Amino acid sequence: MVNLNKLKVITLIGIFLAFSVVALGAWTRLVDAGLGCPDWPGCYGFVWMPTTEAEISQANALYPEREFEVEKAIPEVVHRYFAGSLGLLIIAIFAMSFFLKPRNELVTKLSGALTLLVLFQSTFGYLTVSLKLWPQIVSIHLLGGFATTTLIFLIYVKLKELSEGNKNLYSMTASSKNILNWAFPVLIIQIILGVWLSSNYASLACPDFPLCQGEIIPNADFKMGFNFLQSIGPDYLGGQLDHEARLAIHIVHRFGAYFVTAYFLFLTFILAKERQFGFAKILISLLFLQLILGVSNIIYSLPLYVAIAHNLGALLLLISISYFRLKVSDS
Question: Beta strands 170-172 and 100-101: pairing type?
Answer without folding.
Answer: unpaired
